[in-house]
Design a protein that fits this description.
Strand content: under 5%
Oligomer: single chain
Mean pLDDT: 89
Number of domains: 2
Number of strands: 0
């Protein structure tokens, strides 16, 4: 399979390295939805394996080539989730109820990763209250659903966040 994807992954590497030299953030590179020319029309059987690998290849190349400090200043500060939660609660005046409502609205828009990041901040500030736990369950189930067929690593990590059991793989004979 990797031999079949060699040309596509080489193309991806070149695109990612060009974007890094241009100063693009990792998020911007992911949002570019990089798909090699011809992959959609010529070799449909290679599309799913490419999509499964793409995010991890981008992440690996980005970390190898950007280093500690990134173009968007990430890596320069040492702010924790508690610090970011302090911004939302103490300086912007948001309550737990408002944060949970925002998480629900974000999830309703299908932006589950964004909702999960806000939940991390809410939990850092308020703990795992009933309303936060309920919102977490919703968001992480949606993330599990989103990645169940394309990214087993994310599926396992998201299920662990809410203590969901992942089915055991059958032993091969």
């Amino acid at each position: 399979m990797l031999a079949q994807l060699k040309t596509d992954l080489s193309w991806l590497r070149d695109q990612v390295l060009t974007a890094i030299r241009r100063g693009d953030t990792r998020a911007a590179i992911h949002q570019a939805n990089l798909i090699p020319p011809g992959l959609l029309t010529g070799r449909a059987d290679a599309l799913l394996p490419y999509l499964i690998l793409r995010e991890h290849v981008i992440d690996r190349l980005y970390h190898q080539n950007v280093g500690y400090w990134q173009a968007d200043l990430e890596g320069l500060d040492h702010l924790s989730d508690s610090d970011r939660a302090e911004l939302l609660v103490d300086y912007l005046g948001l309550s737990e109820k408002q944060l949970v409502r925002a998480v629900e609205n974000i999830a309703a828009d299908g932006k589950y990763e964004l909702a999960a990041s806000l939940l991390e901040l809410a939990r850092a500030r308020f703990g795992r209250t009933e309303s936060i736990a309920k919102a977490e369950r919703l968001v992480y189930l949606k993330l599990m659903e989103k990645y169940q067929n394309t990214d087993p690593f994310k599926y396992i990590l998201y299920s662990a966040k809410i203590g969901a059991q992942t089915p055991a793989m059958a032993a091969s004979k």
